[in-house]
Specification:
The structure holds two protein chains of two kinds.
Chain A: E1 5-14, E2 17-27, E3 32-36, H1 43-50, E4 58-63, E5 66-67, H2 73-77, E6 80-83, H3 95-100, H4 115-128, H5 143-156, E7 161-165, H6 173-188, E8 192-196, H7 200-206, E9 209-214, E10 217-222, H8 224-227, H9 230-237, E11 241-245, E12 252-256
Parallel strand pairs in A: 3-8, 3-9, 6-7, 7-8
Antiparallel strand pairs in A: 1-2, 1-4, 4-5, 9-10, 11-12
Helix pairs in contact in A: 4-5
Chain B: E1 6-11, E2 14-19, H1 20-42, H2 50-57, H3 63-97, H4 109-122, H5 128-151, H6 157-181, H7 184-194, H8 203-229, H9 234-239, H10 244-266, H11 272-284, H12 291-312, H13 320-342
Antiparallel strand pairs in B: 1-2
Helix pairs in contact in B: 1-3, 1-12, 2-3, 3-8, 3-10, 3-11, 3-12, 4-5, 4-6, 4-10, 5-6, 5-10, 8-10, 11-12, 12-13
The chains are: A alpha/beta, B mainly alpha.
Chain lengths: 258, 343
């Protein structure tokens, strides 16, 4: 397993509050990695450290052996695409205008709308299923439509890496699986996907590599089938459960037993 | 993608995209600006016909030509350039704070620049160089204080605005105190200047400020795409390649530079910076607050306010600040009621 993106001895802090200490993680290339864990276990914080939104107190995040902090702004933005939990659209933005902003790292002062930009935006809109909404104001969309527009923005960025912080949280169940299916397809096309997911069963079904966090440390990581059992769920979530094979995919499925 | 509402330009490595609505806004604004310029050059103690104005501009004609070239032209240009500078300063701060109330006149930068200028008038001898340096330093210092005090809370826009309003109130009190303590002639000069006025502005007054603003505008132009991208909000702006911490500092300096330069010459002209970016955004219908619409709207607002100031009580000339306060005050009430209704 090769890994271009790695975290080494990462200690993350918000002011005095330590979120994680000496965390080391290799993100497998061209795989779907899901990060799971209870609320406030440091999942989102870890993602933010990967995309340089949070400077590590100690340790480093490396891409191709180089500290992500040393990349130029647009240089890193052509490698790592990130979808935060609750992004805000500028007032009066239309869907195509918003998605076009994903092209920023590929543009310059005098080359602000190349044919490649246009192609990337059309592709992204088609992939995320929002092509029909192109001229609608973002404010008028439903929560689910809006989330797919944001995903399209990150897709238009055309990065080898996609990091998503709870991308399914505003979606109904059908759209949740549609989005996870899209992420799996992107993984099949050669992108590396890292997503913080709340639903452990969805994570088991779609992830190649599962990272279970608690209190800022990694309790277990590996293929879901290899690591997920009742003991792990107890340790990570404090939840008594029975783990059975998912009747559709055969991946582990957690059924609470309390 | 290439819908009818968008215009795409590509030649060689150059490429750009423009909404048709925004293009029409630019065309309309340029026509309005041309009209206001002509009106400003024609209007005065004695009305000059447009033909006379063109003759004066091309250099022929004696007496009235001098009035148009030496008195009216610098004043009209000052209205346009200073209005654009104020509009840009407002757009910068409203983008940084993500709040329509976050404009330099609201968060105390005008008051701070005025404090610096008052210091130059009362303590020093009050030459125009001292006035300029004093107001720029006053503006920068105020910005630094507001910036430093709002750093603690993770720099949320609202915190910066509330602190700015408090600083503005304190500086306004300080300014009154300085004026009260000053000798009579100095106090009269200082108060007259406080209203914000383009009365009697000539080439000597505007040459250096125009140069400074040209440099600031040029730097701002190179930062415009990143500023517009920053409207996506902290996280996405950074992960799409904006070095936000660095950019924000540069933008604050540019915004303070624009405000203070105008204040040094014309005094604090209130409300243009507050109103222009929002009006421009609504007319041009751009997503988020864009720089060019703010600049054009600011130029139109200040020039028309100055013309109104000259005409209202003619032959007595009002300070333009009085008119802009009336326009801006009305706008502010509208903005506040709209915000209240929304929540």
């Amino acid at each position: 397993m090769s890994a271009r993106l790695t975290a080494r001895d990462l200690t993350l802090r918000y002011g005095d509050r330590v979120v994680s200490t000496r965390l080391t993680l290799d993100v497998p290339d061209r795989a779907f990695t899901a990060v799971v864990g209870p609320n406030a276990c440091g999942k989102s914080t870890l993602l933010r450290a990967f995309v340089r939104l949070l400077r590590p107190a100690e340790g480093e995040v490396l891409l191709d052996g180089k500290d992500v902090g040393s990349f130029p702004g647009k240089g890193l933005a052509r490698e790592l695409g990130f979808l935060p939990q609750d992004p805000v659209a500028p007032e009066d933005a239309r869907v195509r205008q918003l998605i076009a902003r994903g092209r920023f790292p590929h543009q310059s002062l005098f080359a602000s709308w190349s044919e490649e930009d246009e192609r990337a935006v059309i592709e992204a809109m088609t992939a995320a299923g929002v092509a029909g909404l192109a001229d609608r104001p973002v404010q008028e969309l439903s929560g689910g439509q809006r989330q797919r527009v944001w995903v399209a923005l990150v897709l238009a960025q055309k990065t080898p890496y996609l990091l998503l912080d709870e991308p399914t949280s505003f979606l109904d169940i059908a759209h949740q699986y549609q989005l996870l299916g899209l992420l799996a397809r992107l993984r099949d096309e050669g992108r590396t996907v890292i997503a913080v997911l709340h639903d452990i069963n969805q994570a088991c079904r779609y992830a190649d590599h599962l990272v279970a966090l608690r209190d800022g440390r990694i309790v277990a990581e590996g293929a879901p089938a290899d690591i997920v059992d009742a003991e792990l769920i107890k340790e990570v979530f404090d939840l008594p459960s029975v783990v059975v094979p998912d009747p559709v995919t055969g991946t582990p499925m957690v059924v609470p037993s309390c | 993608m290439n819908s009818v509402s968008t215009l795409v330009l590509r030649r060689g490595r150059f490429s750009a995209r423009l909404e048709r609505r925004t293009l029409w806004f630019f065309v309309a604004m340029i026509v309005v600006i041309a009209g206001l310029t002509l009106l400003g050059l024609c209007y005065g103690a004695a009305w000059a016909s447009p033909a006379r104005v063109f003759a004066a501009l091309t250099g022929s004609g004696g007496g009235p030509g001098v009035v148009i070239r030496e008195w009216r032209l610098p004043r009209v240009l000052a209205g346009l350039v200073f209005g654009a500078a104020l509009g840009l300063a407002g757009a910068i701060f409203q983008n940084i704070t993500r709040n329509p109330l976050g404009s330099p006149d609201v968060i105390g930068l005008d008051a701070g620049a005025y404090t610096g200028a008052l210091f130059a008038i009362t303590v020093l001898s009050g030459t125009s160089t001292q006035l300029t340096v004093g107001s720029v330093l006053g503006g920068v210092l105020t910005a630094a204080i507001v910036y430093a005090l709002s750093l603690g809370g993770g720099l949320s826009g609202l915190r910066l605005i509330v602190i700015g309003i408090a600083i503005n109130a304190m500086l306004t009190a300080l300014n009154s105190w300085i004026v009260l303590r000053a000798e009579l002639e100095i106090a009269i000069a200082a108060v007259g200047w406080n209203a914000g006025s383009l009365n009697g502005v000539g080439w000597d007054d505007v040459a250096i400020p125009f140069g400074v603003l040209a440099v600031l505008f040029a730097v701002l132009f190179t930062r415009a795409p990143a500023l517009h991208q920053a409207a996506l909000g902290g996280a996405l702006a950074v992960t799409t390649g904006v070095r936000w911490d660095r950019l924000r500092l540069v933008l604050v300096l540019l915004g303070v530079g624009c405000t203070a330069t105008v204040t040094a010459v014309a005094g604090p002209i209130a409300f243009i910076a507050l109103a222009a970016p929002q009006i421009g955004r609504r007319l041009a219908r751009t997503p988020g607050i864009s720089l060019l619409p703010a600049a054009l709207t600011g130029a139109v607002l200040l020039t028309s306010a100055d013309l109104a100031a000259q005409m209202l009580l003619a032959p007595e000339a009002l300070p333009v600040g009085v008119v802009s306060t009336v326009i801006g005050g009305g706008y502010l009430i509208w903005l506040l009621t709209k915000e209240v209704r929304r929540t």
